[in-house]
Amino acid sequence: MNIPLAAEEIFSIGGFPITNAVILAVIVTIIIAIVAMMLRVKLSYANPGKFQIVVESLVQYLYNLVGGVMGDAKAKTMFGFVFTFFVFVLFSNLLALTPLVPSTVVDHGHHGEEGELADDHEELDVMMEEAEHADNSASEEEEHAVKEVSFSTCWETKECVLTTGGVKIFEEKAHVFRAPASDINMPLALALISVITTNVLGFKYLGFGYIKKYISFKGPIEFIVGILEIVSELGKIISFAFRLFGNIFAGEVLLVILTGISVGAATLPFLMFELFVAIIQAFVFFMLTTMFIGLATTHHDH
Question: Where exactly are the transmembrane stretches of this chain (predicted)?
C-alpha cells in the first residue's frame, strides 16, 4: 500500500525530470485538444446533437456566471481564460479516477547504493549504519522495494511514500500515471498563473493607480492595509494550491486505503464521492479565479 508523497520521476529529458504527474498532465492536454477538435468538426447550428446541446448548456451556464460577476463586456474577453482552468482541472481529476492511473507501474531497479542517500548529511548517520547492517543481512531483506528513512531524507530524495508501516523510500517501482493535482507543483503553478494574471488584468483595466492597492502613503492605516493586501495575495496562492492539492491527494489516499482494507468492496461508493469532489474542485477554482478577476478589474470608490 504505497502512496507517494511526491511525484515520481519516470524518465528525464536533458536532465529535466519528467514525473508521472507531468505525463498525465500532457495526456490530459492532448485529450482536451482532441475533444475540442472533434466538437468543432461536428458542430452544427441547424441540427445540434444531444452531446452538443449538453456541452453548450454547460458552457452557457458557466458564461452566465462569469458575466454576472464581471459583466458581459469583460466576460467576452476573459471567459476563455477562466474556462480553461475549469476544463483542465476537471479532465485531470476525472482521468485520475480511472483504474489505469493508480495501477500502472514501471520498474526502475535500485536508484544507487544505499549509502549515497546519506552522503554529506550528518543527520543521516543513523541511516548509514542501518544500510551497512542491511548489506550483511539476509538476502530476503535486500529484495524489499522500500526501506525506512527519516523525514529529512524525504526532502532530499523526493522518493518517499506513505505506507502502513510509516514513511519509506520507494526504490524499485514507480507509478506511470498520477493525478496532476495530487502533485503540489501543478496546483501551485495554476495558482501562480491565476493570481499573477489577475494582477496583470488589474493594471490593464485600472492603470497605474492599481498599485495603490498595495502601496499607499496617504496615512498609516492605508499603508498597513496595503501590506495586508500583499499578504492576502500570497494567501490566495497558498489557498488555491493547497485546497486543490489537499482534496485530490486525500482522495487518492482514501481510495487506496479503502481498497486495501475492503479488497475493493467499499471502493465504489467513495469513488462516486471522489467524482463529485473532482467536479466541485474544478468549479471552485474556476469560480474563485472569476471573482478575483472581477474584483481586481473594478473601480472601487474610497
Answer: 21-41, 78-97, 188-211, 248-268, 275-296
For the chain, helix (H) and strand (E) counts, in that order, are 10, 8
Same domain flag for 188 and 78: yes
Check: CB of residue 271 under 8 Å from CB of residue 87: no
Could you tell me if 135 and 269 lie in one domain?
Answer: no
- Rounded to the nearest 5°, which phi and psi values hold at 301? -85, 125
Q: Looking at residue 141, what is its pLDDT?
A: 47
DSSP code for 210:
G
Within the chain, strands assigned E span 3-4, 9-13, 16-19, 105-107, 146-148, 160-163, 166-170, 173-175
Which pLDDT does position 105 carry in this prediction? 52
Residue 167 reports pLDDT greater than 80: no
Q: Which three cell numbers stand for residue 155?
A: 526532502
Of the candidate ranges 28-32, 140-144, 187-191, 291-295, the one whose mean pLDDT is the lowest: 140-144
231: number of Cβ within 10 Å: 10
Residue 5 lies in a domain: no
Give the sign of the dihedral formed by CA 53, CA 58, CA 64, CA 66.
Answer: negative
Q: How far apart are CA 296 and CA 31, in angstroms?
A: 33
Last residue of a domain, one of 171, 199, 220: 171
Note whether 157 and 56 are same-domain residues: no
pLDDT value of residue 122: 44
Q: State the greatest distance between any 2 C-alpha atoms of the chain, in Å, as a whole number.
A: 76
Measure the CA–CA gap between 227 and 213, rounded to whole angstroms: 9
Residues shown for the chain? 302
Quote the cell numbers at residue 55.
456541452
Residues 6+ apart with CB under 8 A from 200: none
Query: pTM for this one?
Result: 0.73
Residues 123 and 231 in one domain: no
6 contacts 160 by C-beta, under 8 angstroms: yes
The reported pLDDT for the residue numbered 67 is 93
Residue 159: give the domain boundaries.
110-171
Clarify whether residues 162 and 190 are in a common domain. no
